[in-house]
Design goal:
This protein is an alpha/beta fold and about 425 residues long. Helix content is about 35%, strand content about 15%. Helix 3 crosses helix 10. 4'-deoxy-4'-aminopyridoxal-5'-phosphate binds next to helix 4.
């Protein structure tokens, strides 16, 4: 069809006419972004906006080392991953080194959805089974298998109707709200384990359990203590595999830990990672043991033309160099700690902030109408986002209730920018909600 632009049509109008409606954009009236620099997005008019949500641009926007690396590699070679070139070997080895034993074998893909999809297929093929267990309120991707285990209703409640019968969900282990709160949250792990035992007893022993290792998309908080230990033990007791979705929470963002599963003191059988891995260039990876990869070699299929291409691998290496050289995980811990302390202070003055969750630069600011009932302040969250944008801050809500600000800026953010965010939020909340 005809999608050429006419002179009078705005970029936004053209976008909305040419793209499927489900390919959404932030804000009803989004600013037109032309450039990025570190933790800022810069509009066409040259106005900088503090970017508090960009967990993809982990080393910052327009990083000169990334730009140089991309240009150099594109001038040298970029081809499909079946050729023999150095970058794929060193990137694969580098990723394997980042994972704990016995995870030493890497598959390179292009996105998070591909990574979780492949992780699920590895579990299905390695165990010869067809059932999977996932947490409620989770998001793992849009491809067939990754979408099947995505149980969040935030984006489209109707999407759950097409969930296939091989997906079994356990309760959302939210320690702040939900079935078990506060000290009761210790019950989520044993209950999920019991549900897995029950599945096995009914002849549907699962191929695996997939979950974010930190309660990421659902609210930006740690899972209850011991949760993954209980669930991983149950799934393994019945011969299944534990899949860790580290796509949002892993790669240093939590500050104290490189991987989210370290916070839970467990080691998964399969890690899926993406987003930060390529700093916006499409790169993802699955890391598993040689034993699981060998079972897949015998009975599965995998080929990705551009997964681990010379460009992707070089960028992947450059991102890891920058995270190390600029100590971005340390910065996530330090600036994140400062940010959390300041937000907690804000919570003492503004009733609407029910809680400040999270670690490092993965925080959740949960807005409630009432601190006892925890009624989510979803429409308020939306209005606050619009007002924050007026004042130069990009922030967005997450969770099934869309009432938790996801605070996950590029890891290079400094204290003064963190302070600007808190001061602006303070100002907006003081305007009255
Ligand atoms: N898993 C998690 C936890 C995610 O947050 C996302 C993306 N929001 C995905 C998987 C899918 O990644 P992608 O968008 O790169 O396909």
């Amino acid at each position: 069809g005809h999608t050429g632009s006419s002179a009078a049509e705005s970029v936004l109008e053209q976008r909305e006419r040419a793209l499927a409606e489900v390919q959404e954009h932030y804000y009803r009236e989004p600013p037109r972004i032309e450039r990025g620099w570190r933790h800022f997005l810069i509009t066409e008019e040259g106005r900088p906006l503090l970017d508090m949500i960009n967990n993809v641009a982990v080393v910052g926007h327009s990083h000169p080392h990334i730009a140089r690396t991309a240009e150099r590699q594109l001038r040298l070679l970029n081809t499909n991953s079946r050729f023999n070139y150095e970058a794929i070997a060193s990137f694969g080895a580098r990723l394997a080194d980042l994972a704990p034993d016995p995870l030493d074998t890497v598959f390179l893909v292009n996105s998070g959805s591909e990574a979780t999809d492949l992780a699920i297929r590895l579990a299905l093929v390695a165990t010869g089974r067809s059932d999977m267990v996932a947490m409620s309120e989770a998001y793992h991707g849009w491809t067939y298998a990754s979408d099947a285990v995505s149980t969040s209703v935030a984006d489209n409640p109707n999407a759950l109707q097409s969930r296939p019968s091989w997906v079994h969900t356990v309760a959302a282990p939210n320690p702040y709200r939900g079935q078990h709160r506060g000290s009761d949250a210790s019950r989520y792990g044993p209950e999920a384990a019991a549900a897995i035992d029950k599945l096995a007893a009914s002849g549907q022993a699962p191929a695996g359990f997939i979950g974010e290792t930190y309660y990421g998309n659902a609210g930006g908080m740690p899972l209850p203590e011991g949760y993954l230990a209980a669930v991983y033990a149950a799934v393994r007791r019945h011969g299944g595999l534990a899949i860790a979705d580290e796509i949002q929470v892993g790669y240093g963002r939590l500050g104290h830990w490189f991987w989210g599963f370290e916070q839970q003191a467990v080691v998964p059988d399969i890690i899926a990672v993406a987003k930060a891995v390529g700093n916006g260039v499409p790169v993802g990876a699955v890391i598993t043991s040689r034993a699981v990869a060998d079972k897949y070699r015998d009975a599965g299929y995998f080929f990705s033309s551009t997964g681990g291409s010379p460009l992707s691998s070089r960028i992947g290496l450059a991102v890891l160099d920058i995270i190390r050289d600029e100590d971005l995980q340390g910065n996530a811990r330090d600036v994140g700690g400062h940010l959390k302390a300041r937000l907690e202070e804000l919570a003492q003055r503004h009733e609407i902030i029910g809680a400040v969750h999270g670690h490092g630069l993965y925080l959740g600011v949960e807005l409630v109408r009432d601190r006892t009932t925890l009624e989510p302040a979803s429409s308020e969250a939306n209005a606050i986002c619009d007002r924050m944008l007026d004042l130069g801050v990009v922030i967005q809500p997450t969770s099934d209730r869309m009432n938790v600000f996801k605070v996950k800026p590029p890891l290079c953010i400094d204290r003064s920018a963190a302070d600007f965010f808190v001061d602006t939020l303070d100002r907006v909340l003081s305007e009255g909600w």
